[in-house]
Recover the amino acids of this structure.
């Protein structure tokens, strides 16, 4: 297990080195800002300690199911699940460090105990793809795949039911919309094969417009019931419009980040996590709006530049 953990540490260090020093510093800055806001939240609302452990479990479970080395580990080391248990327990211990300064020992304990449960989940690739008619057009292939792999419709129905049951509280539909945005973001965390990229676009701008356009269309359609509940709440039309604009901005940046670092899987996921963290920081402090605008422009320019390195028909 020691050798395995050292190998994982070296792999992550190499991925951070490939990001470049200024991108790594930017992600660390965004992470530090998110950490500061988290500490403020925990200090003001002790009940938040019970929300964070399930979120950590979901994050670890999602990353575990997308790992590409599980089959290799299974073939080379029958005891590989013990390695995964150790790795995920360490991640949970790092996450628990945010709760210990406030004396939230129970919440910290859950943060350590829950992540190792993800070690028994099968990889997403092991799901059997059934032939069935989809409500989503084939051009939006991220949604077709994401809704199938992530049980997207079930999550959407669960969020809609929860928001409807608590519709008298403005935070319910707003929180459900933010949660649905995080689900949709996960649809874009895997780069498509290069042949699909080469045959599907006439130019980088054409490809990016299509990807952002389909993302915006289907997110708006699926978010419409949640937005309707938000309109009927005290937030009204203005609150619904602002939240939709924020969601589409974050989703656009996630799509652009995917092609800025295409086809490097781990690096683009780091970048997308940074984009989502920056979007959440804006909700806490408007001082980050200027940074978000700068990052948006940078991603737009860099994604087109990255795609220009490939030939298009």
């Amino acid at each position: 297990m020691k050798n395995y953990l050292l190998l994982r540490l070296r792999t992550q260090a190499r991925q951070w080195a490939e990001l470049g020093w200024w991108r790594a510093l930017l992600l660390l800055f965004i992470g530090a800002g998110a950490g500061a806001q988290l500490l403020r939240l925990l200090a003001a609302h002790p009940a938040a300690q019970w929300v964070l452990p399930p979120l950590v479990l979901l994050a670890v479970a999602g990353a575990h199911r997308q790992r590409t080395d599980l089959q290799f580990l299974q073939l080379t080391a029958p005891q590989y699940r013990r390695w995964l248990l150790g790795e995920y327990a360490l991640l949970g211990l790092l996450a628990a460090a945010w709760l210990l300064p406030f004396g939230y020992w129970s919440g910290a304990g859950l943060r350590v105990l829950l992540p190792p449960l993800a070690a028994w989940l099968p990889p997403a690739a092991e799901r059997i793809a059934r032939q069935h008619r989809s409500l989503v057009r084939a051009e939006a292939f991220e949604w077709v795949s994401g809704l199938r792999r992530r049980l997207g419709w079930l999550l959407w129905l669960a969020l809609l039911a929860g928001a409807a049951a608590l519709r008298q509280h403005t935070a319910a539909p707003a929180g459900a919309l933010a949660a649905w945005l995080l689900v949709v973001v996960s649809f874009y965390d895997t780069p498509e094969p290069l042949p699909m990229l080469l045959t599907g676009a006439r130019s980088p701008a054409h490809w990016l417009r299509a990807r952002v356009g389909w993302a915006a269309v289907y997110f708006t359609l699926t978010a419409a019931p949640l937005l309707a509940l938000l309109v009927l709440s005290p937030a009204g039309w203005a609150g619904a419009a602002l939240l939709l604009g924020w969601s589409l901005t974050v989703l656009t940046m996630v799509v652009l980040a995917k092609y800025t670092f295409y086809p490097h899987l781990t690096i683009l996921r780091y970048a997308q996590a940074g984009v989502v963290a920056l979007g959440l920081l804006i909700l806490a402090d408007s001082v980050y709006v200027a940074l978000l605008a700068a990052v948006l422009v940078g991603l737009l320019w860099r994604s087109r530049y990255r795609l220009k390195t490939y030939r298009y028909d």
